[in-house]
Amino acid sequence: MTTSSTDRPLAVVTGASSGIGYELAAQFAEHGYDLVIAAEDDGITAAAEQLRRDGGPLVQPVRADLATAEGVEELAAAVAATGRPVDALALNAGRGAGGSFVGGTDLRDELTVIDLNVRSTVHLAKLLLPGMVRRRQGRVLFTSSIAATMPGAYQAVYNASKSFVQSFAEGVRNELKDSGVTVTSLMPGPTDTEFFDRADMEDTRVGQGPKDDPRKVAEDAFEALMKGEHKVAAGSLVNKIQVAAGKIIPDRLKAEQHRKMAEPGSGD
Ligand SMILES: NC(=O)c1ccc[n+]([C@@H]2O[C@H](COP(=O)([O-])OP(=O)(O)OC[C@H]3O[C@@H](n4cnc5c(N)ncnc54)[C@H](OP(=O)(O)O)[C@@H]3O)[C@@H](O)[C@H]2O)c1
Fold first, then answer.
1. Is the CB of 18 within 6 Å of ligand 1?
2. Is 22 noted as a catalytic residue in this protein?
3. Which of 89, 99, 186, 200 could make an SS bond with 105 (beta carbons 3.0 to 4.6 A apart)?
4. Which atom of ligand 1 lies at the shortest distance from residue 40's CA?
5. Is 70 in the pocket of ligand 1 (CB under 6 A)?
6. Does position 3 have pLDDT exceeding 70, yes or no?
7. Is the dihedral of CA 101, 105, 111, 114 positive or negative?
């Protein structure tokens, strides 16, 4: 099924086949939005079927590798082909790469982290925000992370990528403050998704520790997005406290704390 003109607003969600992105898409569906959802693999088709069952919206799945410029352009073309304006945009697709930067991680994985988390976020924003600003209407959510607030020992490239997303979101938010388009950054803490498995971090303390429910994270995110809030430390109270504490703890100490949580084997 493809999207066609309905009275419902349209939301675009990347990384919507699983985890936080799937739950964000479910929030939009439950609140009356039609959807264009994107991910790299075929799971996006099953996610679209599930979302249609849950809320009855029109859902168009787009299978595209957003770590490539071609994949980003494919998604933007699919959005344009709906002929509908984008009312909400959740740039959420992202991945990590855990391990020791020297000798432990693969450069290709780390460059893919940058291509997906950083490059595709900027590229998609560049393609989709102008239409929203022209209409003077829309809500944009960037999935950042609590990782944006701390140097990521044993996940150095990922944390740096999320610092980029956080800073980028805040800069664009300020530029668009009188435009009618709101920008919100979502800062989850450890959340129970496929993230840690994919980042090869299952043997770490953070990988084995307590995690937030992605549905709760998405509910908090949706509420903040609709209110046009600046940022949301979604999920548990622990995450909210950590984001607040991050403002006063020196970076050197935060890197040490991160090391304890993310060092390979630290969970054993
Ligand atoms: N889980 C956490 O603890 C946590 C905490 C803070 C922030 N975050 C952020 O939350 C976001 C969502 O992650 P998650 O935790 O929900 O993990 P997840 O379950 O692994 O979901 C990642 C999503 O991104 C998609 N994706 C990955 N590579 C892609 C590519 N090259 N092109 C297009 N789509 C791609 C995946 O689709 P495929 O399956 O098709 O690859 C999947 O839909 C990420 O930005 C992550 O950094 C997560």
1. yes
2. no
3. 99
4. 40
5. no
6. no
7. negative
